[in-house]
Specification:
With about 290 residues, this protein is α+β, with helices and mostly antiparallel strands. It contains eight helices and 21 strands. Helix 4 runs antiparallel to helix 8. The longest helix is centred in the C-terminal third of the chain and has 18 residues.
Length: about 290
C-alpha cells in the first residue's frame, strides 16, 4: 500500500483572530462550547484557507456570477490554478440562458480543520473608543467593546497526495504536483492573519505528522496543553499503535516555548520546526518521484 496520505497537526499562539456576528456595540469572537460549559474560541477553516490562499497569491482563479451564484468560472481548470486543484470547486454551466445548468464539482484534496483554542475563553473584554478623532472637532465619543482571547490553537492539514493535479482527463506533471504541495507547506510554515489592524503570527510553535498509508488525521484532537506542557503521553501512545505511524512521524518544536521541551525531545525525538517542514517536503518529493 502506497504512503499517499500526508497529515500534520500544528499548534500556534494567537490573539482574537476570528470574529463572528456582533451584538449591539459588542464584537463577539467565534466560539464553541464543550460539555463542561467552557467556551473555546476558534478560527474557522474558511478563514484559515482565505489567509493561506491570499498569502500564496493563489487567489487569482477567475470567478463569475452568471449562474446566479458567485462561483469559479467554468473555464478555470486545475492545470492553471492551484487553488481549485488543492481546495476544490463547484462550477455551474448555464444552458440557453437557463440558470439551472449542469454543475461540475471537485472535492478538496487539501483539508483544513478549524483552529480551536486549547485554553478556555474567560470572558475578557476590550473597551474601545474614538477619542482621538472625536477630540479633533469636539464631537461625542463613541464606545465599543470587543471580546479578546489569547490562547494556543491547534489545527490539522490533511493532503491526498494521489489526487493532487488530477481531475478527469487533466493531469499535470509529477514535478508540478510536488511543487504545489511544497509551496503549500511553505505557506503553512509562515502563515499569518490580518485582523482589526493587527497581524497575528500563525506560524507553528509545535507540529507533528508525516506521510502514511492511511489517510487519517491521526493527531487531530490529540493535542492538549496543560500548565504550558504538551501532553506527550497521548502522542507516544498513538505512535506505538502502528509501526507505520511510529516510523514515519516527524515532530518539531520551537525551543523555549513549552515547559517540557526536554521531554518532547526525548520521547518524540523533536527537532526544530524548520527541520520538520524540510522532512515533510522531502517526503513529498519522494512520493512523486516514486510515482514516475
Amino acid at each position: 500500500m502506497s504512503r499517499n496520505g500526508l497529515t500534520v497537526t500544528m499548534v500556534f499562539l494567537a490573539e482574537s483572530a476570528n470574529y463572528g456576528e456582533g451584538v449591539g456595540n459588542i464584537t463577539t469572537l467565534k466560539k464553541m462550547s464543550r460539555g463542561s460549559y467552557e467556551q473555546y474560541s476558534y478560527i474557522s477553516r474558511q478563514a484559515m484557507r482565505y489567509s493561506l490562499v491570499q498569502q500564496l497569491e493563489w487567489d487569482k482563479t477567475p470567478v463569475d456570477g452568471k449562474s446566479g451564484v458567485v462561483q469559479f468560472a467554468p473555464s478555470a481548470t486545475i492545470a492553471e490554478y492551484p487553488e481549485i486543484d488543492l481546495f476544490g470547486y463547484m462550477k455551474t454551466t448555464s444552458k440557453d440562458g437557463d440558470k439551472k445548468g449542469g454543475a461540475a464539482t471537485r472535492s478538496a484534496v487539501v483539508r483544513l480543520s478549524n483552529a480551536i483554542a486549547l485554553e478556555p475563553y474567560q470572558s475578557d473584554l476590550e473597551f474601545l473608543n474614538n477619542m482621538g478623532m472625536a477630540a479633533r472637532n469636539n464631537l461625542e465619543n463613541g464606545i465599543a467593546q470587543s471580546e479578546i482571547h489569547r490562547s494556543y490553537y491547534s489545527y490539522t492539514v490533511s493532503i491526498d497526495l494521489d489526487c493532487i493535479g488530477v481531475d478527469g482527463e487533466i493531469e499535470i506533471p509529477q514535478n508540478e504536483k510536488a511543487e504545489r504541495v511544497k509551496t503549500l507547506l511553505d505557506g503553512i510554515h509562515y502563515l499569518y492573519r490580518d485582523i482589526k489592524g493587527r497581524r497575528e503570527n500563525l506560524s507553528p510553535l509545535f507540529l507533528i505528522g508525516g506521510r502514511y498509508k492511511r489517510k487519517n488525521p491521526f493527531f487531530e484532537n490529540r493535542i492538549k496543553v496543560n500548565k504550558n506542557r504538551m501532553n506527550t503521553e497521548t502522542l507516544v501512545e498513538l505512535l506505538n499503535e502502528d509501526p507505520d505511524i511510529k516510523e514515519n512521524t516527524y515532530c518539531g518544536v520551537v525551543k523555549g516555548i513549552f515547559d517540557n521541551d526536554a521531554e518532547l525531545k526525548e520521547k518524540l525525538h523533536s527537532e526544530t520546526v524548520g527541520e520538520t517542514f524540510q522532512h515533510l517536503k522531502e517526503e513529498v518529493e519522494a512520493y512523486y518521484g516514486e510515482s514516475n
